Amino acid sequence: MTFQPKFRAIAATALSLSLLAGGASAQASGETIAIVGATVFDATGAAPRVANVVIRDGRIAAVGPDVAAPAGATTIDGRGKALTPGFFDLHTHWTPNGAPNQTPAIATAYVEAGVTTLNDFHQPPESFAPRRRWLSQLASPHVNLTARMSTPGGHGADWADTATTKWVNTPEAARKAVRELLPYEPDLIKAFADGWRYGFSADNTSMDVDTLSALVDEAHKNDLKVVTHTVTVERGKVAARAKVDVIVHSLQDRPVDQETIDLMLASGTAYAPTLAVYEPVKPGQSPPDSLDNPRFVQSNAKFQYALQNVKAFHDAGILIALGTDAGMPGTLHGFSTLHEMELMVQAGLTPVEALMVGTANSARAMGVLDDRGTIEVGKRADLVLLDGAPWTNIADVRKTERVFIDGRQVVGPGTALPQANAMMTLPATPAQALIDDFEGEAGRTRLDTLRVQDTDGGMDRSVLISLVAPEPDGDKALRLSARMSVKDDPHAGVILPLSRGSLEPVDARAFEGLSFALRGDGGEYKVMVRTVGGWWQAEVKAGPEWATFRTPFADLQPAANWRGDQTPWTGADLLEVQFGGGRGAGEALWLEVDDVSFY
User: Fold this and answer.
1) In angstroms, rounded to a whole number, what is the distance separating the alpha carbons of residues 85 and 98?
2) Percent of the chain beyond pLDDT 70?
3) H or E element at residue 175
């Protein structure tokens, strides 16, 4: 059975792009385009050949050497150029670490590299709907939003809240978690199944095969692919036994053995080795001062295993796909996707094989080859026109001239990116006075946003329980109880997003500050406000009796270096409000919150 994920055509559907070359008028989505005379690498296995390609209504209408440009079509001279399918990247994190630091800039980096379909592993499901609306305004690849699962304390659960990364450690919990995610319409699921953490800590948080198998089975019942963070040979066997669709990292602790190959062949598990993130010295970086540095020695050894193993898998007939882990430190968005194909050649694949990895193979791995990934009649017109011959010299994938997504030119002569690609924030909506009085739907604020627990990161995290409970007078309030982790500066708190997924900012300039009621253990607590530009905070002290506080915005101080950069307060770009605090290592904290509003 082939599982077809419910991917969406999120791309440039709402754009106002122009193709001005040759005096053509603004491109409409239904315009007919003819690319004539290009050497076409169609990724079907055929040799590159000179042909004409006609695009109509966002799809490939005709391909061949004798195909004529229809009357009235916008004609693009492709003579001396190479035409390939758009490139895939099955493993990205849309984070600031990948050089561009905001969603529009990240989208631009990918389309300029010719990447037309990718998976983003970094967003909380609560943000999927507003994020899809945002992406529809950009010149962007098709972005598949991924729900995440890990084990308690496992890799991937060491930084995010449990709404972003669900924690499961039994088959029953895994099935329940998959079902809970379905209303958000994820495009696929990523399981952080391997707790080895690249040899820097003990493997005490890996997901057992029964839990992973149940997760995969429940996902497949709902037409969702499952990819997995797996980085050791033994855990690769677990992933294959669980019938994971794609391993989206390298097995890099030792050479792969025949048992692993046989298991992956039997299960149909594909392999996207993300070589770009493991390269010990990445393009533009300087080598370490000492090549005997233990960490560099270990990284280099793992990278050599990674190169060796991708070639072994390829030669054994396992489907190799393209992923990069872009967004991790030093792994640049867009650039790394192209570099991954270069590293495939370094591993021993031919340039033709590397191009297949970046196009048709990746489409097949994600179950969308019927829709895209090759240049064939009826397929989505996601195309890259470039100089050179990348099937001979893989570095030519960098010589991008034009990029088409859904048949619309998004990069190339005469094309202007939409204004949304230059905007660093979404337009703010007016803030509502009442944020939460905890009398509404379970788990959600009065703004219909999902309350989120927040604690310190790492394998050992503070344990927090928060729930809405009735007071003696029948009113309800939010109760927090936490045991601090054993580390410096532990903390625990609850976030009240001002919009779904804390994505779309609100403008609170009509108000003077925050009003709220607190009671607690007599210690100090932090009231924090996150804006697009950073975090702001004030400290309050609350005893066991209820007290009402008013914190003017003017009293908020920058939470310098707490999470990211800090820009001046404007009041026009608020994202969320948080209540919590810290205590000594291993100590307890309790707090109750009620009637949170702007005044």
Assistant:
1) 24
2) 93
3) helix 171-181
Contact between 143 and 120 under an 8 Å Cβ cutoff? The reply is yes
What are the residue ranges of helices labelled H in 72-120? Answer: 103-112
Tell me the pLDDT tens digit for each residue of 71-98.
999 999 999 999 999 999 999 999 877 7
Residue 447, amino acid: L
Is the pLDDT confidence value at 15 over 90? no
Q: How far apart are CA 216 and CA 244, in angstroms?
A: 6
Both tokens assigned to 546: 């209820």
b/e map 188-197, b = 16+ CB within 10 Å:
bbbbbbbbbb
Cα 21–Cα 26–Cα 31 angle in degrees, nearest 5: 95
Q: How far is CA 486 from the centre of its chain?
A: 30
Would the pLDDT of 28 be above 70?
no
Q: Cα(12)–Cα(139) distance, rounded to whole angstroms?
A: 5
Q: Is 102 helix (H, G, I), strand (E, B) or coil?
A: coil
Of 75, 86, 214, nearest to 140 (Cα)?
86
54 phi/psi in degrees, rounded to 5: -110, 130
Cβ atoms 138, 513 nearer than 8 A? no
> How far does Cα 278 stand from its chain's mean position?
18
Q: Residue 178: exposed, middle, or buried by beta-carbon count in 10 A (0-12, 13-18, 19+)?
A: buried
Amino acid symbol at 491 = H
Residues 6+ apart with CB under 8 A from 596: 434, 435, 436, 437, 496, 514, 515, 516, 577, 579
Work out whether the CA dihedral 352, 358, 332, 307 comes out positive or negative: negative
Q: Cα separation of 530 and 498, whole Å?
A: 10
For 580, the 3-state DSSP assignment is: strand
Tens digits of per-residue pLDDT, 509-523?
A: 999 999 999 999 999
Cβ(518)–Cβ(579) below 8 Å = yes
DSSP conformation class of 208: P
Specify the DSSP class assigned to residue 160: S
> What φ, ψ does residue 176 adopt, rounded to 5°?
-60, -40
Whole-structure pTM value: 0.91
Amino acid identity, position 484: M
DSSP β-ladder status, 476-483 and 588-598: antiparallel
Give SS3 for 413. Answer: coil
